[in-house]
Amino acid sequence: xxxxxxxxxxxxxxxxxxxxxxxxxxxxxxxxxxxxxxxxxxxxxxxxxxxxxxxxxxxxxxxxxxxxxxxxxxxxxxxxxxxxxxxxxxxxxxxxxxxxxxxxxxxxxxxxxxxxxxxxxxxxxxxxxxxxxxxxxxxx
Amino acid sequence: xxxxxxxxxxxxxxxxxxxxxxxxxxxxxxxxxxxxxxxxxxxxxxxxxxxxxxxxxxxxxxxxxxxxxxxxxxxxxxxxxxxxxxxxxxxxxxxxxxxxxxxxxxxxxxxxxxxxxxxxxxxxxxxxxxxxxxxxxxxxxxxxxxx
Lengths: 140, 147
Prior knowledge:
The structure holds 2 protein chains of 2 kinds. By secondary structure, chain A is mostly helical. Chain A has 6 helices and no strands. Chain A has one domain (4-139). In chain B, α2 crosses α4 (86-102). The longest helix of chain B is centred in the last third of the chain and has 28 residues, at 118-145.
């Protein structure tokens, strides 16, 4: 039970963030899309670029502000070594661009809009994620 | 021109997102991999993260459908495509493999940059390389087949 209440509370905050960004700015809170848009728009930053970059700055400020409020940093246990993390990062970067979204864009925002594309994407990345973890458990 | 109002709204929304990730446990790759480990010691707590997030996000979407435009912008910027195609499925499949390998997806990884941890820097740098690699290869492909 201890883990479920913070999980639910955190989820509600994430949903509030997505609703705020949509209702105020008309934007989807999809992190992979925002990151790649900010990177590719670096040369000619427009009005939308500054807003998207501001969202990402707020996102990065989240954990330190949490640490001030809660008195401790959020737990972060990284089991994978650097080569595996590099490979995983490449797959996540390429895959989210090819598939037009990640856990936030397809999950938090797409499922909320009942988007058929997002429902398919979420089912697929949950399936391959679970399969990957299962295979790694069997192999080790 | 809306001045600094729209970026400030985005900054506040980003901060809420980062706080939510921190509180929820999504910043902990071991926990995320525990959630994906359905055949082992499954940790179902992240179901509550997604459930909470999607329900509030859906409320926001329902309200947005009753508005002609967002409060601070001229129009809603929503994806219109409804096609379920190979890039969508293939991209989601690749993303899932990377997510399972590391326990990181883009939101928590970007938020965790504030910890300054080297593994996070390596993951995010590789993620940016993957994104740029996609944009370079996919943008050139249609031009190459044009007669």
